[in-house]
Amino acid sequence: MAPRTQTSAAGVLALLSESDPFLQQYALEQLNALVPQFWAEISESITAIEAIYDSTSLSKETRDLAALITSKVYYYLAEYDEALSFALGAGSLFDLERRNPGSEEYVETMVSEAIDRYIQLRTSEEAGEPSAKIDPRLGSIIEGIFQNCLEEGEHKQVRISFCAIHHYLCADEGPRRHLALLSRVEDSTSLAGYTSKPRIRIYFHM
Questions:
Q1: At what angle do helices 104-126 and 136-152 cross, to 10 degrees?
Q2: Rounded to whole angstroms, what are the CA distances from 176 to 23, 81, 158, 181, 198?
Q3: pTM, entire model
């Protein structure tokens, strides 16, 4: 007998209102897999999922998962600022999402948004604007780009903003052990005929 095709996320969404944290965790795990297919339906319960993320009585794992799901829903709604904010809140789960088949476009979009936001904030900070405050989690995403370039660059196309890389590695929060990576990026872009002017996006294989 062929397995039944799931036609709705309603049953799983109903579990979000349960008081048992284990049921809520289970519901989130199921929803995370259902977002690509039922994101529109899930978006109607986005407030409930955000409430789980904001809860102080639930585990960090549950809250991070709620943040990741919320980020994905906002991504499908093309609300990229909100999507990035919750992606940052998802912590290590966002990093793991990089290796999840089918999430490539979501991850690439979030990385691109993170780079753009980082450049904007760094530029404002250098201009002396007091309101410019860089979320350290943005730096973590920039660092993650480097790690992926080194670990998977032979078979994966990576989109990088040279400006963000330069700022991250040369600023105080840039780990000194990664300065060699900047040199490698510069070498790669020079060989490819690119310049290092700010805001130029480059595509290359390391």
A1: 130
A2: 44, 30, 22, 10, 21
A3: 0.76
**Residue 161 in 3-state DSSP?**
strand
∠ CA 33-35-36 to the nearest 5 degrees?
95
Query: Which residues, other chains included, contact 159 with Cβ-Cβ below 8 Å and sequence gap of 6+?
Result: 108, 111, 112, 201, 202, 203
- Complete DSSP assignment for 61-95: HHHHHHHHHHHHHHHHTT-HHHHHHHHHHTTHHHH
3-state DSSP assignment of residue 158 = strand
Q: How far apart are CA 161 and CA 149, in angstroms?
A: 13
Give the chain's length.
Answer: 206
Cβ distance 188 to 109 under 8 Å? no
Backbone angles phi, psi at 189, to 5 degrees: -70, -35
Per residue in 111-153, pLDDT tens? Answer: 889 888 887 887 787 777 776 677 888 877 777 766 666 566 5
**CA angle in degrees (0–180, nearest 5) for 137-143-146:** 155
